[in-house]
Amino acid sequence: MYKKFIDKLEKQGSLSFDEYLALIEHRDEVREYAAERAFAVRRRYYGNTVFIRGLIELSSYCKNDCYYCGLRASNKNAQRYRLTAEQIFFCAENGYELGFRTFVLQGGEDAYYTDELLCGVISKIKACFPDCAVTLSLGERSTESYRKLKEAGADRYLLRHETANEAHYKRLHPKAMSFENRMRCIYDLKALGYQLGVGFMVGSPFQTEEDLAREMLFLKELQPQMVGIGPFVSHRNTPFKDYENGTAELTTFLLSLIRLTLPRVLLPATTALGTVDPMGREKGILAGANVLMPNLSPVGVRKKYLLYDNKICTGDEAAQCIECLKNRIAATGCEIVTDRGDYRYEL
Length: 347
Ligand code: SAM
Ligand code: SF4
Ligand code: FES
Known about the structure:
Helix content is 44%, strand content 12%. It is α/β, with parallel strands linked by helices. A six-stranded parallel beta sheet has the order 2-3-4-5-6-7. The chain has a three-stranded parallel beta sheet with strand order 8-1-9, with helices on one face. α1 runs parallel beside α3 and α4 (85-97) packs parallel to α5. The two termini are 32 Å apart.
């Protein structure tokens, strides 16, 4: 019976709240079928290709205090670092030589990164590597700041909404952060013409199956070009240290539902998924994901960008990760390609 819902979702690209909820509740019965259909849909739009994005984790300083994140300002045990504009450029240069054509500049919300500094780095990367895309993932900023960064050449922005349920948002964040401002940022980025990425953690504390069904409706309505989901993984120095991690099973099932809901979406199999399950990223690709985001940050700082415990790949050089990923992905029958990997508006 639930297979019929998967067929309906593939055919019309959406379901009702009750239908999504029924699928999520009975996921064990349809997991394999959902993955099979999602993989086929992914193949229709993107063939066997898996895009890679070079992640440059530029700062472990953050003014915010999200209850789930190891970089939160109140974590006095966190080791803090920030990369200079030159170091960021150097990471991109190294990445370019390794074949990357998209760089993701990600970090905590750190006032050191003024619009001026960021515009300088973005325009330099775009001038030296005109065939590359620059993605930013630097949290909440003003409308004006997003506009300046776009004008400097940024192509895409990743800002996970974390949850589409305002009451749930309040349980994951302190009072100083608001759902309203998160949404303001997301709609600003969309209006400014960024390729937009949103997303949420799977299995975050207090998340219900109803919340997950609502996530699917939110994504359908927003129509983002990218969706980043990964399991919540607890960090020992946060208020959520005793909460269970999200599972690879639920994450991969949701990847399949997202692929069927937004057939052309750029969908990463995340490092967090590879952290909760050693085969997590491969399983993600087989369930409909088509993007990987290996790390290009200098090895010397990697262990300091610890959002959660036991993060993988923190001791490996970018070149090693790429080789490792190529082999892992080849085993799924897919292939990593050197390409900007833009959203396919046309077939
Ligand atoms: N500061 C920016 C922001 O919050 O958008 C970008 C960096 S932040 C570390 C990137 C993402 O990491 C967040 O959107 C959140 O979903 C994820 N994250 C943080 N803590 C996590 C945890 N404990 N487990 C899994 N993902 C986590
Ligand atoms: Fe800062 Fe982002 Fe971590 Fe929240 S999730 S504490 S904004 S780095
Ligand atoms: Fe980083 Fe395997 S992907 S070492």
